[in-house]
Model the fold of this input.
Amino acid sequence: MKLDNKTIGQRYAKAFFELSLERKTLDTDFEELSVLMQLVKENTELGDVLTDPRLRDSEKQKLLTTFSQSFSQNVQDFLNLIQDYKRFDKIEFIIDAFNDYYNAYYQKATGKVTSVVALDDNQKANLSKAYAKKFGLKSFEFENEIDSSLIGGVIVEAQGQVIDGSVQTKLKRVKQSLQK
Amino acid sequence: MSIKAEEISALIKKQLENYQDKLVVDEVGTVTYIGDGIARAHGLDNALSSELLEFSNGSYGIAQNLEANDVGIIILGKYADIREGDQVKRTGKIMEVPVGEELIGRVVNPLGQAVDGQGEIKTSKTRPIEGQAPGVMQRQSVSEPMQTGLKAIDSLVPIGRGQRELIIGDRQTGKTSVAIDTILNQKGKDVVCIYVAIGQKESTVRRQVESLKKYGAMDYTIVVEAGPSEPAPLLYIAPYAGSAMGEEFMYNGKHVLIVFDDLSKQAASYREISLLLRRPPGREAYPGDVFYLHSRLLERSAKLSDEMGGGSMTALPIIQTQAGDISAYIPTNVISITDGQIFLESDLFFAGTRPAINAGESVSRVGGSAQTKAMKKVSGTLRVDLASYRELESFAQFGSDLDSATQSKLNRGRRTVEILKQPLHKPIPMEKEALILYSLTKGYLDKVEVDQILDFEAQLFDYFDSNHASILEQIEKTGDLPENLDELNQAISDFVDGFTSK
Done:
């Protein structure tokens, strides 16, 4: 049976994560992969081009070298390996899985917080502290999204869970209980 | 009815006071595939098997396949407006349906929502649709009769309360009619009937409901309906939902009759779901667990022990065969699960023998012990009579010189076949069934012309109703023939003399 994207991502990411842990280059590798993720997201066709059977391997290799040069030897080797196995179209899943391993290692989580107005630094710090405490983590990082339809409160989405404290949802719940 | 405004505000105030402002942590996943009533979702790492999940458009689904990275979900309801990337939420519950007295007389879908246009059904209780069947110590053997009101069934393949008796046959052989007649005959017997229509044409279901209404059977019947236009998951859960509704009555000491019309279509919709969920196909492309699909359903019909209240649930599953092939996959499965089968044949049906029961291949494995003494006495020789008649019938077509013993066997056989015929929606009470079969086995009918037999039967019933009602009453009350048969014999022969001299 064909492997699904997530399984493939996990396999490559686990190998790279363990190696970089042994070589003690975890933090720099993580940062470089974050840069790469940015790059991949900006150039959505990159993965498809690098796995395009119509192009010659030497041409693809040339393209890969142009953007991988700036990375450390570790990451370069890793990218070359992915290219050898023709899995570059799965690079996003691989980096995602790597980030999961990285977060689990440092006991932290990343997620998304939706609010009506942008949170100030103090609020952000408090929120992340409270979240980390609730789930027994060391830290919690999040992006702040603005959505005025919430009316008030925040929605925290992370680790496959949603904590919905928005006024919109509360009103909806009051409405449901009155309709009964 | 006038509604006082302050009462309502008071109610709202009370509700608002009790309204708890709790932060709920929802576990969510993301839809990665959607189509054909099936969704796959990433995440939902803690989802349980057959847990109810909620999509962001308000539709519900059941987690069916729990795989390493995703969950296969069957969607109950609209799925056209679910998109890739939508959220799916865990509810922490497993699928439940409303149950209770309030459902009686209603037509509902497999989710327990009314589809008869008579307003919402307000029940106080619910039950999970999948439940553990009663165990060994919670049961007792079948002992009370479940009268179908059909002479052919009550005499040859008797059904007991708590039995599972399969009705099997080709299309257009009267399978549904047998089941509906059985429901009609439960009038006044304190039996709750549940008719589960799976993939039947809506017009057909409408017609059945109308005939149930016409004969006053809707007063004790629930109709669960999953039409062919519903998505396959609803057809798949329909019999389980019906069973859950029946179990509520059974565990409260009542008697229930449940008809699954039909399980072939349910198996087909389960096959559809399984193939879409990419489960490996087996024989006839059914998945590997298609036997368990039906065995766990039918095992829930039982006769409970007295400690459990002594309630029962009798199941009449229906299976449609293709050209009489009972060795196809689903028919053999269900035959082996049930406690016997009623085999209906299209040849007999078109020859005018209705109900078209094939007496040779129909059996009841446990019903015999539930048959009333009266019926047991009068139907003892019936099966043998019919068998020897069928055997001789083919010989008799060639030769003309038959000895008198053979002649009399042929005569008796012809009359037996005639007696077992019965018109649609005319169930007969047990004491009258016993009466006419007694007349047959004692030879009173041998003098009556074959084409006058049904006429004879009707007049005999009228005669007994007006002149010898006490005998019928006695049979009904004791469930046995009178100890002194003289009065009965005398009454019958008086009537026969009158009838034949006309």
